[in-house]
Structure formats: C-alpha cells, structure tokens
Write a structure and sequence with these properties.
With 518 residues, the chain is of the alpha+beta class. It is built from 22 helices and 10 strands. Strand 6 and strand 7 form a beta hairpin.
Amino acid sequence: MEPDSALTNGPVFGERGQAIQDVLLHCPLELHGRVGTDRAGPGDGWTEAAQPDGQVRIRFEPGQVVQRGPHPAAAVVAAHDDVGNTELADFLEALEKASGRDLHAWARAWLETAGVNTIEASLQVEEGVITSATLKQSAPPEHPTLRPHRLRVGLFDLDGGRLKRRRAVELDISAASTPITELAGERAPDLLLPNDGDLTYCKVRLDTRSLETLKHHLREIDDPLARGLAWAALWEMARDAELRARDYVAIVLENIAVETDASTLGSLLGRTELVAERYSDPRSRKDARALLAAASRTHLDTSPPGGDVQLLWTTTFIRAARAPEDVEWVRGLLEGKTGPEGLAVDFQVRWAVLRALATIGVADDRLLARELERDPSDEGRRLWAAARAARPVAADKQWAWNAVVRGDAPSLAVKRAISDGFHRVDQHDLLSSFVQPFFDSLLPVWQANTSEGAIWIARLMYPRAVITQEVVDATDAALATDLPGPLRRTLLESQDGIKRALRAQAFDSAGTGSPRGA
C-alpha cells in the first residue's frame, strides 16, 4: 500500500511530499497516539479517527504502509501540534518521538546523498549446510554512502518442478558487512535472494549457486514478485559487467515463456535486445542476435493469435532477422505472404518491417515512398524519416544529420524519429565520421537554438552507437572546454552510457560470467 496522497501531497506538506513519501517507503517505525476530531475534516485531506477512544496505531515498513486504524495522516496530527507550517524536519522530529528512532540520520543518508547501494550474500557451506552467512553492502566510488536498509533474505528450493520459498529472514543492515546469524545450520538453498519482498531500494548481486539455479529454473519461481526481483537482479548484473551479455540473453530466452503479461514481456524483450546490441562483444553480437531471432520466431508462432504477446514477439523477430530466409519472411509481411495466424499487419507492423529492412540496406527509395503513399499521416512521415535515416548509406546519414543538427526537420518529434533511425550499432564505420562534427557543433547549436532545443539536439545526436574509447576521450576533451552547464550534464550522462557499454563488452569478451561473493 502506497502512502496516501492526502498525506504526501496534501495542503500541509505541499512540494515536500515526495521527500516525506520517501520516508514512509523506507523507514520502519510504529506510531502510537491520540487523535483529536477537531483538527480538520475529510475535505482538507484528513480523516477523523473512527475508533471510540481515539487511539491509532500505524506501522510503516520499508516498501509498504500497513494501516492499523484510520487515516495515516492521523499519526502526524497526533504527533505534532502545529501543522500549519510543517517542514520536513518537523515531520521527522514528530516521527522520532513516536518511534524512538533517529530519523534525521536516516534522512541524511537517504534523502541528501546520491547513488544506489548493491547488496549481495556470501555463504560458507560445509556438506550442504550453511556454517556462516553475511550480507555485504557496497556503493559506487563516486557516491560512497552506505545506508541503513530493512530487508528480507529469501531461501528458495527446487521442489517438484517449482522453485519455492522455504524461509525468509528479515533484518536491518547499515554497515559494509552484516552477519545473518539466523541462517547458520540451515540447508544451503538453491536460490538465495537478497531483498526478497522488495522491501528496500538497492541493486542485488547474486551468488554463484543462485545464478546457476536461475539459468535453468527462473521460470519455476512460484512467487511472481520474487521472479520479478530475479529478473531485475540479472539485468543489473549485465549492466554492471557482472554477468556476460551472452549469458544474460541465454537465461532470458530459456525462461521467458513463463511471462505472458504484455507489459512484463515487453520490458524483458527490450532489455534483451539492448544487451545483445550494446553490451555483447561485437564479435559475438551476430550470435546473440541469432538466438533472439530463433526464440522470437518460435514464440510468435505459438502465442495466442491476435494478442499483444504475439505482436511483441513478431516485432522482436522483425528487428532481429538477419538470415536470408528470415529477412524474406519479414518482407513477406508487407505483401500478406507470411505472418502468424491472427496477426494484424497494420501500419505499426509495416513501418517496423520497413525500418528493419532499411537498417540492413534492402529498402530502396521506391519501397519507402510506396509505404508513405499508403500512410501519409504525420506519424507516417515521421516513421518514413526514421527508416530513411536507418539506411547504411552516406547520403542518408548526412541528410539525417542536417535535419536534426542544422534544423532542417520541422519539429522536435521529427528530429527524435530521425535520430532513432540514425544510430545503428552495425553501422560503426559510417557513424564514426560524425563523431568529431558532433563535438564541433555543440557551441554553434547552443547559440542557434533555445537552451531546451540545444539540449535535445545534443542528447539526440550524441554518437551513442559508436561504442569506442575514442568517443569517451572526445567527450572528455569537450568537457574540458568552456561549455554551458546544461550541455555538460548532457554529455556526462551520454558518456556514462558509452562507458557502461564498453565495460560490459569487455566482460562479455573476457569475463567468466560468475559474480563476486560466491
């Protein structure tokens, strides 16, 4: 249950609501107090006490608010007399008095510092029995804050074709290393899941045994939330160069059939495509893409006809298709010669086909022009521009560059569509010629556009598909000049994506695939 909007966004706290909501989401406490009935009525965002004696007990756990009594705002009313000009510090002080916890220290760690902590478990096991267990917390070097966390560690075992939770241990941690004394003497689980239940905000790094279990049995986790946390842990490990891109793709494709919700499936497929395209060793990118294409073809043929799941698998296959027979199948969608039963080949699908064919250089001017005649809408024109920009042709790349950087495109929406097609990781040689012109254009673009427009152009045309150290170095060189602050921030954010991709590619090429802390 989320903190009530009347509490976090109501007339008392106003713009400070988000910070207060963060307190409610992460701070474990229990409040006790009397509630008066003359403070404010429901119309003011409050609810009067319903209990005869005016008592209220509200327990706030990390990640949830369990209401034991009337409205959560009643606790704040009970704890603080002067609510008319309440500041965050007043709110924290009131909660400290009611809970007996030092919440100012908590707020400093959680609300005034940046970065995300990573939590992993380390087990010592003898003859299948845990002799000691430790939770380790780390922080990125640039944001080295270790924070207090209330979390749960789940132990899961394979049992009759399912991966079931045997036990969960809840504890507080704040240091770099915290022993889990309750696990000593337990049988070693097949999966040990830190942050089971999603009680705190952190990244999770899996131990070797758990990772091996998930490779073949993630789909068998019987708790959907725990399964979602396992998916998230694998994604963060791939992004942080703790899991090889090829292994991430293989794990996802072996286990993804269990996900039939279109939103969940779409997110997983999008991440898998990104890993295959940007995080895999360029020498093995073709293999990762082929795995994705093969799995997509199988699933699109077996998905319920006419549904969102079938559409997701079809569009994934369209983008991944490279083998001649696969490309011909994709082209056949335009003419009604191919396609799974029930698939509506509407403009969304047709333009996806055109862009995919354009990317690999098999969509000529006539093919694109015919589709634009079929769909002359504003959306059709944007998608035509994206497809043209995707072609591996120097003239089309220059046209796209001029449209976005020199302002030939009529609107931001068109510029976004063009930049979407422009950046293709398989077109490294063509795109490399635009790296230095991009950095040379930064100040002229800033001077010729509004600040918002210049930021958008810098963000859209940063050479994100040229994943090389040279782009990192060129960015550093630009940052060493006297650039406006907004452009500097845009370059730093974009450069971080290149650095992350380089680390992941290097790990995919030379890494073992095993996380630390095994």
